[in-house]
Amino acid sequence: MAREKLRSENKTLELEHLTRELDAIIESSSDGLFVCDGSGRIIHMNPASARINRAPAEKVIGRDYLDVAREGYVILPSAALEAIKKREVVSLLQESRYGLKLISTATPVFDDQGNIIRVVVSERDITEMDRLQRKLEEQQAIGDQFRHQVLELRQEYLDEHPVVARSPGMIKALNQALKLSEVDSTVLLLGESGVGKSLFADLIHSHSRRSDNLLIKINCGAIPETLIEAELFGYERGAFTGAVTSKPGQLELADGGTLFLDEVAELPLASQVKLLRFMEDGQVTRLGGTVSRKVDVRIIAATNRDLEKRVEKQLFRLDLYYRLSVIPLTIPALRDRKECLLPLIRSFIDRFAERSSKPKRLTRSAIDRLASYPFPGNVRELMNICERLVVMTDTEMIDVSDLPRAVVIGSDDEFSAATVRWPEVMSMAQILESVERAVLVEASRVCRSQQEIAAALDMSQPTVARKLQKYGIAIGYK
Predict the structure, then answer these.
(1) Are β-strands 361-362 and 397-398 bridged in parallel, bridged antiparallel, or unpaired?
(2) Residue 416 confidence (pLDDT)
(3) What are φ and ψ of residue 327, in 5° steps?
(4) Smallest Cα–Cα separation from 440: which of 364, 386, 353?
């Protein structure tokens, strides 16, 4: 009997200790906590909840939640009452009459028969979090506005700059170049001869923090192998026969600026070693010299060669290749940016016409010929052709007969509906119209009348007349 009494007293003591621990936890919690019974009567409220609601405990404990709410001590709608009604955990975002933002979560407690005997409500003051969130959103909005303004300025630059970008590939390349102008990373410009790699180097440098300093360009393929090292690194007096004075190299002259190494694949191996060493430590030692100089130079390199194949053939160092190709940027060939062709033609014709004070225009047939030519020399070839047409043509109108023979013949040989790479944005109807127009252009060259075209293509003469008018095609030009 005494043993059972002792056991009972121990359990009572343990229960008292547990109750004190729970009370201590509840009372010390920074979150507001209050407890209702199954009917919505408040039976406990911790200090944090009393502070949040500005409700003295003696004013609310033992009273019905709705009565307390009518007096303004607690908030409606009530997470506790909703939990009793729905018999599940309920969370509400609330605002107190004092302007506090709260998240209230009510958790129902059930007895063995499934009746709600308690509802525990936690209240978290998120006023400061909400203020910080709003401030963060404002800062993000300012940042978004700034980025939008930057994009607008970039687009304004692209619209005003002589770089013509209408195709998705070219627009992407230009945007990448503008992004690269914001950093000092080494850039490797890749692309066929004549695509405008030098122009991209200008673009990157002119928009960089180095724009106030020099952009020095070196064509590595145009300098004799015996002189390239002296050109890059400079030399001291007496370093070789004829070196009667000392001379700084282009790397020293470009200090604080940018060095553009065009045709970098043509660098001799000995110069590659010295260039790699400079890119690793930024130190320049002149030929015949013993003193190293620290210079701050950004390297932009360019090549139309496949450097990986050059590495395989041991004509280019692998470690230098990795150093140069930190960020490769590929510039699309003119044949891959058909959307740019007509604006480029008009831009070059207008530019050279203004320079020579000779107004010039291209006939539709001449434009068609130029548009079907593959331009293996890319933009450089197109620019040269346009200058030749403006200078050498006597009349204001430039026709097919004025075009270089290579363009006239090349466009015939190269055009094939089976090999044309249509832009992805073109629909099937647009492609069919393009092919139809090309066929009618060719037919109008070799036929002398609409009747001949109709007979050759097995069409009616009115249909031929309508389609020629639709596409603006004239008959009989050579």
Answers:
(1) parallel
(2) 43
(3) -130, 100
(4) 364
Cβ pair 235, 246 in contact under 8 A: yes
Residue keyed to tokens 């695509």: 195
The whole-number pLDDT of residue 23 equals 63
User: How far, in Å, are 171, 202, 267 from residue 231 at the CA level?
Assistant: 35, 21, 12
The beta-carbon contacts of 435-444 under 8 Å, at least 24 apart in sequence, are 436/467, 436/471, 437/471, 437/473, 438/372, 440/464, 440/467, 440/468, 440/471, 440/473, 441/365, 441/368, 441/471, 441/473, 444/468, 444/473, 444/474, 444/475, 444/476, 444/477
Structural domains for the chain? 14-127 (3.30.450.20), 156-332 (3.40.50.300), 336-471 (1.10.8.60)
According to the model, what pLDDT value does residue 147 have? Answer: 54
pLDDT digits (tens, 9 = 90+) for 175-203: 899 899 999 999 999 999 889 999 999 99
DSSP 334: G
Is the pLDDT higher at 465 or at 250? 250
At residue 153, the pLDDT reads 53
| Cα Rg, the chain, nearest whole Å | 40
341 C-beta neighbours (distance < 10 Å), count: 22
Measure CA of the first residue to CA of the last residue in the chain; give whole Å: 126
DSSP 29: -
User: What's the mean per-residue pLDDT of the chain?
Assistant: 81
**Considering Cα of 231, then 236, then 237, then 241, what sign does the dihedral take?**
negative
The span from the CA of 396 to the CA of 161, in Å, is 27
Q: How far is CA 314 from the centre of its chain?
A: 35
**Closest by Cα among 436, 445, 429 to 467:** 436
Give the residue with greater pLDDT, 75 vs 267: 267
| Residue 463, H or E segment | helix 461-471
Residues with Cβ within 8 Å of 308's Cβ and at least 6 positions away in sequence, in order, are: 321
* Residue 186 · residue 324 · CB < 8 Å: yes
With 0-12 CB in 10 A as exposed, 13-18 as middle and 19+ as buried, what is 349? Answer: buried
Number of neighbouring beta carbons within 10 Å of residue 251: 25
Dmax (CA) of the chain: 130
pLDDT tens per residue, range 17-73: 666 666 666 666 667 888 888 888 888 888 888 887 777 777 788 888 888 888 777
Strands 247-248 vs 187-190: parallel, antiparallel or unpaired: unpaired
**What is the distance, to the nearest Å, from the Cα of residue 477 to the centroid of all Cα atoms in its chain?**
46
The four Cα atoms 213, 217, 220, 223 give a dihedral, to 10 degrees, of: -100
Half-sphere exposure of 17 toward its Cβ, with a 13 Å CA cutoff? 6
Phi, psi (deg, nearest 5) at residue 31: -85, 145
Alpha carbon 177 to its chain's center = 10
